[in-house]
Amino acid sequence: MTLRSRLVAFAAVLVLVVAGTILFVLQVRRERERAAAAAPPVAVTDLATVTRQPHLIFRSTAIGDDYGRVAAVPLGDPSGPRAFTGASCDRVYAHRDEAVCLYSKPGLVTTYQAEVLGADWAVRRSLPLAGVPSRTRLSPDGAWAATTTFVSGHAYSTPGAFSTETLVTPLGAGGGKSLNLETDFKLYVGGRRNTARNRNLWGVTFTGDGDHFYATAASGDKTWLVRGSLKTRELTALRADAECPSLSPDGTRVAFKTRNGQAEGQWTIAVHDLASGAVTLLAEKHSVDDQIEWLDDEQVLYGLPRSGSGPSASDVWVVPADGTGSPRLFVADAWSPAVVR
Amino acid sequence: MYITIRDRPAENRAAGPKARVATTVVLLGVVSLLTDVSSEMVTAVLPLYMTAELGLSLLAYGVVDGLYQGVSALVRIFGGYLNDRTNRPKWVAVFGYGISALSRIALIPAHGFAAITGVVTADRLGKGFRTAPRDALIADASDPAVLGRAFGVHRTLDTIGAALGPLAAFGLLLLVPSGYTSVFVASFGFGLLGVAVLVLFVPDRRTAGGGLPARRLFAELLSPRLRRPLLAAGLLGLLTVSDGFLYLSLQHSGGFAASWFPLLYVGTNLVYLSLAIPLGRLSDRVGRARVFVGGHLALLLTYLVAGGSGGGLIATLVALALLGAYYAATDGVLPALISKRVPAAARGSGIAAAQTVVVLARFAVSLAFAALWEGIGPQSALYLAAGLLVVGIGAAAWLLKGIDA
């Protein structure tokens, strides 16, 4: 081939690639508009009416303009009309009149934000946030907020690059500095102090006593359910192979996800009885990668990505906490559930 | 920036240090630039895509990140062997660049954890295949007297691509919110353009010799000419702490580095791309072995700064600059050093052998260093590594003595 014909061939490839990409992007935008227009309209109701009764706060993933917005449904009618708030979050947790919201702000350099929202869903306070949002919880008395983010290294690095950052921040009037679970707390496993530098901590759930909490500790390829104290700044391992704990409303059991001998990236959900140490595997057969939320003392809620229908589609499911029964759809097009009574 | 596009046949051995960098080298640089835009676009959005869009956890991402590092090292030597066996470096490289480009389009239907690990593995396999034949092509097309500069030009273009990729990806996400599919399609487009430049413009040089049989190739790799540089590269590789740990050490000491963690690698890349050509030229003048060993002195200083600092702004910037200088003085200089020591027929394997030795040594040491890091803490671990590196640099300097002559 002569240089001339090669240049012509390259110009053709260039035009095809550029035109193809532009057409694809335009097509995606157009299809989104069409899908938004064609999507069965989400039945919407009044927020004040919903939040007066026991309700579920979640991130709505229904296609349309309200995608990613925080919404509420009554616990009595979870598949009924949803009420939208003004907040948009990747991860949300709420109590009556208080919520914590983690989100990413896309930009040339994508940044991440964490905010405490008040009763009117307006920003009351900003929290530090270093990476991709993952988990968040409020303590029952509203005095503490916990956030877990994913801080990643880059390219040339090898092990040790994967890292989470979990902060607990006092929300009281006095405020105060955030505590970092990794650096401000001592970790004990089997009675011995663990000083591993590659330890990671994530997924906090608070007890009602204003001091204790449960979380995940990891070092190397091991994970533990740990119980921590804000006063003594100590974390003690309770059992191995347990991640993203969630304390039941009556404070007697912890639901968590466990590898349980499965492949990397596969988890089963289980419940650990704090008094007896007995563990019950729940009936959900799909791999669950979420921090579980208790609907009441008998049932748990969790998000599942909806396979086959493209990314970003997810639903919230419910399953009995005693290993019996079978999972059932609780709220479609939803993620990051929080029960508010 | 110093890039001159002017064709000067490689056979012109008399050209001396003033010779221009061959067009083939610049073209291969452009191929790498386009491919790096393509791959860094994906790397930049993958954590968000996996966690925010697919609802996968952090740990799942950690596994994928590990795959990114590990896979390519092992196929590299096979790529080098294939290159020397078939004697068609261009087409081996096309195969490698091709798989990586195709893997982007596979990301669109890949929604689960297993599918994504598969795609990432394919991408890395492609990288493993293409590196050695590409470096062999650069060596073949260049005047040996300016080989250091030629590799410098190539690595500069390559790193520019790596810096532009994330900007392109996040720019596109601004246009199409949550439009990860669009990012993958655009990334595929860039990858395709890279392959097109390679196929259409890079000459299909056949390296000398008719494809070495495996046994002779093996003998060549163990020959005294290569034994010393391979030993030196392996020894220094064993004393190279992965920069993930250096970043973590800066971050753990708090302060500036903690809040700017994601930008640390950008700083390293900027220094790398601005120093790759000057240090490549320096290596042509004063000797590649000298610059290669000197680069490890910069690494030694990095350990001391990262170990001794409180994570302040100045210390962080100094550490990043030193780390970038280390990459600039070693990454392109090593293949330049090796190319001269092996006959053209075994060049791909020779370069691949050196790169594999370095990557495997670094991988082994990162496991050992992780244990050290846990045992005695980051500061002592870095100081210990620095002490060992002093000895290693001395030994490497002795092994490489007279090699530039």
TrEMBL record, chain A:
Keywords: Membrane, Transmembrane, Transmembrane helix. This is WD40-like Beta Propeller Repeat. InterPro entries: 6-blade_b-propeller_TolB-like, WD40. The chain crosses the membrane at residues 6-26. It comes from the Bacteria. The lineage of its organism: Bacteria, Bacillati, Actinomycetota, Actinomycetes, Micromonosporales. Coiled coil: none annotated. The keyword Oxidoreductase does not apply.
UniProtKB/TrEMBL annotation, chain B:
It comes from Actinoplanes regularis. The chain crosses the membrane at residues 21-38, 58-78, 182-202, 230-250, 256-277, 289-306, 312-329, 350-373, 379-400. PROSITE patterns: MFS. Residues 24-404 form the Major facilitator superfamily (MFS) profile domain. It is a multi-pass membrane protein. This is Predicted arabinose efflux permease, MFS family. Keywords: Membrane, Transmembrane, Transmembrane helix. It holds the Pfam family Sugar_tr.
